[in-house]
Amino acid sequence: MSEAAAVEAGARGIGARLREARVAANLTIEEVAHSLKFSPRQIERLEADDYAALPGGTILRGFVRNYARLLKLDADALLHELDAVLPGSTVEVRPPENMGVAVEPGEQRGLSPALSALAALLLAALLLVLWHFFGPSSKPPVAAASRSEPTAAPVPDTAAPPATQPSGAEGGSPPPTPADPPAAAVSPSQPAADTPVQSAAPALQFSFADRSWVEVIDAGKRQLHSGENPAGSQLTLQGRPPFEIVVGNAGRVTLTYGERAIDLAPHTRAEVARLKVE
């Protein structure tokens, strides 16, 4: 048996225990992948003890540690077993991938496409957070400006000078004054124009102290939201109750429904909350 085969056979069993704990926690591979930020295929490889298909060294150790913590297992014990069968995995030395490729004088190396994309994503998230906390929250000044633009047109003075109107002493009667507007226009029996409209249904309000994944489905089986939310952000959703809600990293999420605060702790297992809000 080769050395690689012996190492893999010795480490077999760690992934199987992780899989059993995941099934006992009623978690799917996709939910674990969302929480750990690994692909579903990598989760399957680890649970199958297929270490040859996974990054070695520090990445593998971090993978096992985070998975164990998510499932409330003894991470130190699993890492001790992993170190026993993978000695020296904590320090991994690899030759540079570009060995033998000379850099011409004056040539500059730019960031890799992956690092450039990550930097752009972080910058966009930072700008979004800054806009959320410091951006304009209402538009009263604009409304005030728009109301101040029109100017009242001058009303022509059509009344005749007092000296030209005939007096009662001369035998004439003063001209009739214009009739007042019909009282029906302001009659109390007619409904007011600004009758209050029935208020909308309460909204779901999520506040994220840390990065979290949320999925919300309303009574019509319509998916209102499904995706990851950055730390410091908020999410407001409206639909037809009852709502079916799944929240990852639930300990760092606050949920309110209208004026009512929803406690996620009784519905949380392995950092994932599942509940129905009516």
Question: What are the main properties of this structure?
Answer:
278 residues, alpha+beta, 434 Repressor (Amino-terminal Domain), 8 helices, globular
Written overview of the protein:
This protein has 278 residues and is of the alpha+beta class. Helices cover 33% and strands 16% of the residues. It has helices at residues 3-11, 14-24, 29-36, 40-47, 58-70, 75-85, 113-134, 140-148; strands at 204-208, 212-217, 223-229, 234-237, 243-248, 253-257, 260-262, 268-269, 272-277. It has a 5-stranded antiparallel beta sheet with strand order 3-2-5-9-8, with helices on one face. Helix 1 (3-11) packs antiparallel against helix 6 (75-85) and helix 3 crosses helix 4 (40-47). The protein is globular, with a radius of gyration of 36 Å. The two termini are 60 Å apart.
Main beta sheet strand tally, sense and closure: 5 strands, antiparallel
Strand content: 15-25%
Low-confidence stretches: 1-11, 89-93, 98-108, 140-149, 159-173, 181-198
CATH class of the domain at 3-85: Mainly Alpha
Global outline: globular
Tally of separate helices:
8
Give average pLDDT, whole number. Answer: 74
**Classification by helices and strands:** alpha+beta
Radius of gyration: 36 Å
Spatial strand arrangement across the major sheet: 3-2-5-9-8
